[in-house]
Amino acid sequence: MARVAAVVLAAGEASRFGSPKQRLLLPRVLGRLRESPVDEVIVVEGAYELEPPSDTVSQEVRVVPCTTWARGPGASLRCGLAALADDVEAAVVVLADGPNLSPQAVERVLGEWRAHGGVVAASYDGRRGHPLVLGRADWHGIPDEGLRDRAVRLVPCDDLGAPGDVDVPGDLELL
């Protein structure tokens, strides 16, 4: 079976939050990924230095720096993809500020990717979300603004709940 890695985008400066929210939310996201079918996890840091929690021993977790993080999420994604081993065939992209990520959503989008290839994303209420999976053939040409404009195949994950989006401290209370 194809080796799959998760790329956690955690490089932003969290200006609306007011402090490095990645440090607060990353353990929960990594816990969710630990329950999903990924072989390794790359955490992309940028504005703040990050360390994976010490309880991630059962799954390989590496933090990689991205000096170009300020260009946008695509720049961070390129840094994460560049850090993956040659035998990784697909990357599951998740955000560090989505603490309610469902391991089953990761399984679902990976299943669709394995069946049909291409770029696949979870959808919630018909809107594109995360996780997103792309095979190695789709790793080229990622613009600084990310993959928002790239055509994707959507996989409904409404029954699993959206991963969340923590932008301001008040968003934590809603979780």
List the SSEs and their pairings.
Layout: E1 3-10, H1 21-34, E2 40-45, E3 60-65, H2 73-82, E4 88-95, H3 103-116, E5 119-124, E6 127-135, E7 153-156, H4 169-174
Parallel strand pairs: 1-2, 1-4, 2-3, 5-7
Antiparallel strand pairs: 4-6, 5-6
Q: What would you say this structure looks like, in words?
A:
This protein is of the alpha/beta class and 175 residues long. The chain has a seven-stranded mixed sheet with strand order 3-2-1-4-6-5-7. Strand 5 and strand 6 form a beta hairpin. The termini are far apart.
Give me a quick take on this structure:
The protein is built from 4 helices and 7 strands. It has 175 residues and is α/β, with parallel strands linked by helices.
Order of helices and strands: EHEEHEHEEEH
Strand content: 25-35%
Largest sheet: 7 strands, mixed
Please state the structural category: alpha/beta
- Roughly how many Å apart are the termini? 35 Å
Helix share bin = 25-40%
Number of helices: 4
Strand order of the largest sheet: 3-2-1-4-6-5-7
pLDDT averaged residue by residue:
88
Number of strands: 7
Q: Shape from CA axes?
A: globular
Radius of gyration: 15 Å
Extract low-pLDDT stretches: none
